[in-house]
Amino acid sequence: MTTTTTTTTAPATAAGQLPRVRRRRRLSPGRRLPAARLAGPLAVLTLWAAASAAGSLDPAAIPAPWTVLRTAGHLWTDGTLATDVLTSLERAGFGFAIGLTAGVLLALASGLSRTGEALIDGTVQLNRAIPTLGLIPLFILWLGIGETFKIAIIAIVVYIPLYLNTHAALSGIDSRFVELAEVQGLSRFTFIRQVVIPGALPGFFVGLRLGVTGSWLGLVVLEQINATSGLGYLMFQAQNYGQSDVILVGLLIYGVFGLVSDSVVRLIERRVLAWRRTLSN
Fold first, then answer.
1. Which residues of 236-273 are buried (b: 16+ CB within 10 A; e: fewer)?
2. Most distant CA pair in the chain: distance in Å?
3. Closest Cα to residue 260, out of 271, 252, 249?
4. Which residue among 53, 162, 183, 261 is buried most deeply as judged by most CB within 10 Å?
5. What is the number of alpha carbons within 13 Å of residue 235 lying toward its C-beta?
6. Is there a contact between 230 and 223 (Cβ–Cβ < 8 Å)?
7. Tens-digit pLDDT profile for the chain (281 aa)?
């Protein structure tokens, strides 16, 4: 008679003790932390305040945060800062609206038609290779030195990343979806609404975030050219008089505008693309 022995692969445990369950390692980033994007700016602000309080920074070159806040309060009280902020917002808003419209329409025309791609894509790529700020002298000759050329330059800065990312998203739509739409007999309008737009939205929002940031970057340069108001003009005048605190006020306002506008776009993107399951959500 043969005796068989059974071996178990479970680890030996003490009497009455349950075997230890090995926890599965998580590879995702984890849950989103509330107001996590403010941690970095707050850390920089804390280091700035600590260095200023310790006397490690030259007050003439880098004033303390409380000095900058006091200067901002004075400028707001006398009405200078409010006027400059509204002027900058108006310029950025007009330029962004034009660039947004142009970028989306050109991307759709180029991404949905071979003829449109042949006529548009090469021209946009050529425009992208030319430094946008290098077009300022030519646009001044064409449009004058008033507000029109500033808005036109901002529109160019905005439309290029919007076009590139939206066009790339359109080109990356799986061809099997196109074949399925053809089998289902969808009209072109229905195909664009149900397949093209959802497929292009992720790339569109990436371009939108880049365009929003680009509008502020272009504005700070343009407002120093024959301007009589605006944050860039305020900073340019402060440079002439050595007012570093006023320059920092302008830079901080630009930074706040950029952070807030990017956060708004992120929030809209999260709501519109809630159907996607990604690492970010």
1. bebeeeebbbbbbbbebbbeebeeebbeebeeebeeee
2. 107
3. 252
4. 162
5. 20
6. yes
7. 444 444 444 455 555 555 565 666 676 666 776 667 788 888 999 999 999 999 898 888 899 999 999 999 999 998 889 999 999 999 999 999 999 999 999 999 998 888 989 999 999 999 999 888 888 889 989 988 888 999 999 999 999 999 999 999 998 888 888 888 888 888 888 888 888 888 889 999 999 999 999 898 888 888 888 788 889 899 989 988 888 999 999 999 999 998 999 999 989 988 888 777 766 65
DSSP 197-215: HHHHHHHHHHHHHHHHHHH
Rounded CA-CA distance 248/189 in Å is 50
| Sign of the C-alpha dihedral computed for residues 5, 6, 9 and 12 taken in this order | negative
Give residue 128's identity as a one-letter amino acid code: R
226: left (phi over 0), alpha (psi -120 to 50) or beta: left
Identity at 55, one-letter amino acid code: G
Only one residue has tokens 């664009």, namely: 192
Report d(CA 223, CA 239) in Å as an integer. 14
Q: Which residue has the tokens 């991307």?
A: 107
Contacts of 212 (CB under 8 A, 6+ apart): 96, 158, 258, 261, 262, 265
Phi, psi of 173 (to 5 degrees): -65, 130
Instruction: Report yes or no: 62 and 204 within 8 Å, Cβ to Cβ.
Output: no
Q: Which residues contact 5 (CB under 8 A, 6 or more apart)?
A: none
What SS3 class is residue 187? coil
Q: How many Å apart are CA 199 and CA 87, to the nearest integer?
A: 37
